[in-house]
Amino acid sequence: MKDTDYAYAVARIRANECRLLPGAVLDEMAGAPSYDAAVRRLGEYGWTDGSETDLSLLLRREGEKLWLLMKETVKDRSELQVLTALNDFYNVKAALKSMLTDADPSPYYVQPTLLDLDALTDAVSRHAFEKLDAPLAAAARQAYEAATRTESGQSADVIIDAATLHCLSLQADETNCRMLADILRFLCDSTNIKIAVRCARTGKDRSFVESAVGPCHSIDRDALCAAAMQGEEAVLALLETGVYRAGAEALKKSTTAFEKWCDDSVIELCRSAKYEFFGFAPIAAYYFAKTTEIKTVRIVLSAKQAGVPNDIIRERVRDLYV
User: Fold this and answer.
1) Packing angle between helix 153-174 and helix 178-202, nearest 10 degrees?
2) Which pTM value belongs to this model?
């Protein structure tokens, strides 16, 4: 599609941006005296009419509205696949691990996804992996074979996670949207950093580390693998010498702080789309913005329900798009 072909879609996205939550609202919710008071603040932005306060329902409904908007405005399935790739691979993992443990995968599936989840469950349960799209089929088959050979669910996780990263990296190379490519490459790098830290903390060997760490973009993959085998301090030292030094500072604080830094970094990359009037960038930016908004509302309201102090909740609030 030409950039000008997105004119109507971008116009719809701009109209919906007006209903995104400002950061000040999340701050007010974090400081609200109760869970119900925080939910009432959401009512002013169309999340609820005041009669519904169930958190899971509120989050699911907002996610459904987001995905309906995406399907109505994006006619190219390949572009939707870029947005759902993480969820699609996750759902394959959920189906596979549930099959191996004789469990129902339905509670573990996530939305949005382009997969027919009933068909996914059936295909995996019958080992008919060829019924899945090519990248998913190959990952599922390899993961199943590894899990049954080693009797370890971790081996399946590693294979599917690596396939996810390879898919994101390929999508970054193929997309004509520079902002989206930057986001996908950042997601690859930040995920690899998390993998490296976990490997360092658990003392994984070279074979495991090199199979788990996927394609890197703004960090040297070989150096990251080597650091992971030396320990967490070596990973942090490596990050401090490159473009992810802010991520290293966040990791020094906590894993939670690093997760927040990752989400904030994606939103910062999205902000360039505010000044674009054509093309896919404004649509993708809105998707990531709304996804981050939903995640942040979940964090705030879950913390309210658990009685977490307001100052700690505020530390976890993500930067928002508006």
Assistant:
1) 160
2) 0.93
